[in-house]
Amino acid sequence: MKHGKKYNEAAKLVDRTTQYEVADAVALVKKTAVAKFDETVEAHVRLGVDGRHADQQVRGAVVLPHGTGKQVRVLVFAKGDKLSEAEAAGADHVGGEELIPKIQNDGWFEFDVVVATPDMMGVVGRLGRVLGPKGLMPNPKAGTVTMDVGKAVEDIKAGKIEYRLDKANIIHCPIGRTSFSEEQLTENFDTLMDALVKARPASAKGQYFKSVTIANTMGPGIKVSPVKYA
């Protein structure tokens, strides 16, 4: 893959053979930000598990202390007083069955996270084919299927992110923006890694953190030493 001049200049700052300490990696991820916009910083964590086995799935959610720097739009499926509870907590859209055709037929997707009360999952389930591929289906493990919709919305707005394995057993998560301070990015990264440590399946054997990399949107990957989290 051919990269532009700015990327190549940024890549020269990174030693691909080195696993950096977190503080050094975070300093580099800020230094290698060359885009004219505020780039997202992502963590990519390859785990020593096999997600094809149900007992080795790693999935959950964690609230980053400094958020992700992104305004998250929340849609809540609920009824009765739970609708007003969700609105009061700051949900961007609330409703029930009437939203199904809007999403299914009109292709309306002006939301980033979907929360639902358990009694609405029968309705939301009808959207599985459109929400599933986009990773938007509410899930109890991620805390997005709950009767406590107010807290769910507040957590998401405060910087709650979901994590789950992809087919290559890698977790991809945003941990902030390049405009964040080094301390903010480090604290967010530590919080994510601590959550992954706690989520380690009992059946996972051997080395859990196979590789850890952080990168900004347009920059090179920077390897992080996972030793302190092992």
Please give a quick description of this structure.
With 230 residues, the chain is α/β, with parallel strands linked by helices. The protein contains 8 helices and 9 strands.
Structural class: alpha/beta
Overall pLDDT level: 93
Q: What separation lies between the terminal Cα atoms?
A: 33 Å
Helix content: 25-40%
Number of strands: 9
What is the helix tally? Answer: 8
Give the overall shape, derived from the CA principal axes: globular
Which blocks of ≥5 consecutive residues have pLDDT under 50?
none
In what order do the strands lie side by side in the largest sheet? 7-1-8-9
Order of helices and strands: HHEEEHEHEHHHEEHEE
Q: How much strand?
A: 15-25%
As a whole number of angstroms, the C-alpha radius of gyration is: 19 Å
Largest sheet: 4 strands, antiparallel
List the helices and strands and how they pair.
Layout: H1 5-11, H2 22-31, E1 40-47, E2 59-63, E3 74-77, H3 81-89, E4 93-95, H4 99-104, E5 113-116, H5 121-124, H6 128-131, H7 149-158, E6 160-164, E7 170-177, H8 182-198, E8 209-216, E9 222-223
Helix pairs in contact: 2-8, 3-7
Key attributes of the depicted protein:
single chain, 230 residues, alpha/beta, four-stranded antiparallel beta sheet, three-stranded parallel beta sheet, 20% strand
What does this structure look like?
With 230 residues, this protein is of the alpha/beta class. Helix content is 29%, strand content 20%. It contains 8 helices and 9 strands. The chain has helices spanning 5-11, 22-31, 81-89, 99-104, 121-124, 128-131, 149-158, 182-198; strands spanning 40-47, 59-63, 74-77, 93-95, 113-116, 160-164, 170-177, 209-216, 222-223. Strand 8 and strand 9 form a beta hairpin. The protein starts with a helix and ends in a 7-residue tail after the last strand. The mean pLDDT is 93.
